[in-house]
Amino acid sequence: MFNKKFIIENIKTLIYALIIAVIIRSIFIQPFYIPSSSMEPNLLVGDRLFVTKYSYGYSKHSFPFSPPIFKNRIFFNKPKRGDVIVFKTPADNRTDYIKRLVGLPGDNIQFIESNLYINNNEVLKSKIAETDIIYCGNKTINVFTFDEKLPNGKLHKTVYLRDFTFQNSDIFTVPEDHYFFLGDNRDCSKDSRFLTSVGYVHQNNLVGKAQFIFFSSDRSVGSFFKFWKWNESIRFDRFFKNII
Q1: Choosing from 38, 59, 189, 217, which is the catalytic residue?
Q2: N or C: which end of the chain has fewer CB within 10 A?
Q3: Is the pTM above the cut of 0.85?
């Protein structure tokens, strides 16, 4: 028998659940999938992580489909150098990228003989491995791995190609209210060095701060639905790993 009340109540429940999900995703926390190798070795393709939306306040990009409800950012908290941040690319204000914040407004950023300089001071890095192999797209590359220390003391791993690494650049002067981002996989990252596609990122384009990995799987091993390969495809050691 057709039960109209039952159907209406279920539709209402679904609508309420959708509204609650949108509020949580917009105001508090959003899951994010790592689709590229630009942040190796710290973030791997197949990592799924949580991004906190409240870390830097809110803009229209905090909400699904970026509705024009705010002209500027509200409740703004300035990000810190070294934060790993999801942002909308300035090229289309739609695509999500995740990179490490390196340059603050007014900073001068430059590469000299493959060394990173911030405001004419070389960023210190210590080589910790000479024979690492990581991904760059579908290919593997041979890299040197470093511990890199930013001016505020933030320490993180970066990798550079053993051969033909990124050598020299012009000086990038970060405009007011903008930020300069780099991928940790320095020779396999489209980031703020590429002014036509990414460039300087306005504070309104910040989406949130990457906090921790809640799940990770290696698709090259097999589909998630092949449960008999879970011991190979699921990276259990990366579950609940903090992002630094």
Answers
A1: 38
A2: N
A3: yes
